[in-house]
Amino acid sequence: MKSVCAETAFPDILTLLKRQASALGNKCALEFEGDESVTYRELHDRVIYTAERLSGAVLTKSGQRPRIGIVMPNGLQMATTLLSASILGAALPFNPSYTLVEFESYFKETRIDALIVPNERPNYATLAATALGISVIRVDKNGEVTAPFISTSPVSLPQPNDIALVLLTSGSTGRAKSVPLTHRNVCTSARDVCRSLELSSEDRCLAMWEQYHVGGLVDLLLAPLASGGTVICTKGFNAAEFYRLLNSAKPTWFQVVPTTLNDIVGHARRQRLNPQGTSLRFLRSVAAALSPRLMAEAEELFQVPVIATFGMTEAGPLITSTPLPPALHKPGSVGKSCGCEIRITDAQGVTLPAGTEGQVAIRGDNVFPGYEGDTAANAAQFRDGWFFTGDIGRLDADGELTLTGRLKQLINRGGEKVNPQEVDDALLTHPAVAEAACFPVAHTTLGEDVAAAVVLRSAATVDEIRHHLAALLATFKIPARIQIMESLPRNAVGKIDRLALAESMAKADAQIITKDGQVSALEARIAQVWARELNLPHVNADADFRAMGGDSLSAVRIFLAVETEMGHVLPESSLTQIRTVRDMVRVIENHELCGTITSS
């Protein structure tokens, strides 16, 4: 029998699991790429089993709920561990790609009591935890726990205001902010996701997004479970794998960021796929602004609506959503509120009339209680019970929200938030760098990409600087473009003018992209491959890959396409060194492939 998400949110995650296990029993709750499945009853039992063993393995002060760090790859094991930790205490999932320096810093800042990892060899996370004296707990796929000390203790029912999840989000200061989300916050947002998408027990969610994000727990786990549906867990995103699972697993909805949506549209075009008439009933775009062009292309390709959203970690995460048909989506709008109150104010906090641009403020049961240990940020962003998101926008008479900008300087790189100050600080640790400024540049699929300008005090190359950053920053924070300058532009009060840097780079890129220069036969051939994979009519041999809309996914595609075209394997180490067509040709020639390749 078809069931739908209740109008009233579950009070906590454990109650959600208990009620759904009782009501749905042997219905499939989670699948892992078609190889393994877990019913609602089995999910409840496995989560409780793991939580009980964790409760005897995590030492905390009497009466306190433990803060449990998690570093795991995507999959069933991550899903069940995340649920277990959020029931026992506060779950703190971390990006597995962080460096040793980042893990040490974030573990100290978030004050975790223990770290959960899979049964694998030591990595940066375990090394950081060991150095800080944090207990490392290993959990296998069956929920078995291995720890220095262990016993079994019963798990008590969480209260709605207990912290379920703590996530890091970049702040306007030089350090990350800790965002605590209560059981009420995440269960309310899960309910709002269900209602906005009209989810039911017949829905099947294909989850290919990182599970350490707020969407990994709320959008792609709690919301489908609250509606009685099924979650198809995967190891991560891959366009070819998406189409394979679309045919074999029969999902009814798929959540994307604009970058991945662009990739699945491009993959279909290159492979001449026609995904119309599949099991999908909608696609949902989150985390970054979705261009009208890409939305239209995806809707035409799949013949299903693409839902655009506005959200943030602090809102648990959902704030607004565009509607499903037959309701109309107003161009440029991110939709209406999915549950919380929204108002637009002036700088003094006075509510502005409909259609007037101002600061976006929200309040509701989905909104977090405040940043941990950051009284200054809380004082600045909470006013009279309203949380000011840092965005600029306007509400029309129908309650539709249109975003027009933001007050914050954070770079939104395809949904990953990057703090320019953190990148500046990392750049300045290089002995040759005297001054540094990180800034955003427009990007076709990511929305924004990370760039930087530096002034040197001694000789250094861009590759040397980038290599230095690799030990300090996660890959997504490392500037894709680093420009060496004689001096940095400054405004009237002496501050570095990041906007001027961005405008200067955009202008230079435009001149190079449109310029025609002399090219060899091999350069022309490689340029044709780049143009095909980037869906561009023409590629200049000196144009920067990122400036033309390239990202990590298209970089791999180009690399493989060139290998196929030329019939030779290129050195894998060169993938991160290639910025232009001429760079790639130099790599080919340096590996003595040119004679064979150009003769074809």
Which fold does the CATH topology of the domain at 411-512 refer to? GMP Synthetase, Chain A, domain 3
What is the subunit organization of this protein? single chain
Please tell me what the overall shape is.
Answer: globular
Q: Kindly report the average pLDDT value.
A: 87
How would you describe the overall organization of this protein?
The protein has 600 residues and is of the alpha/beta class. Among the domains are: 411-512, GMP Synthetase, Chain A, domain 3 (2-Layer Sandwich), CATH 3.30.300.30; 516-598, Non-ribosomal Peptide Synthetase Peptidyl Carrier Protein, Chain A. It has 18 helices and 26 strands. A nine-stranded mixed beta sheet has the order 2-1-11-10-12-13-14-15-16. A hairpin with a 3-residue loop joins strand 1 (28-32) and strand 2. Helix 1 runs antiparallel to helix 2 (40-55) and helix 9 crosses helix 10.
Keywords:
single chain; about 600 residues; GMP Synthetase, Chain A, domain 3; Non-ribosomal Peptide Synthetase Peptidyl Carrier Protein, Chain A; 9-stranded mixed β-sheet; disordered C terminus
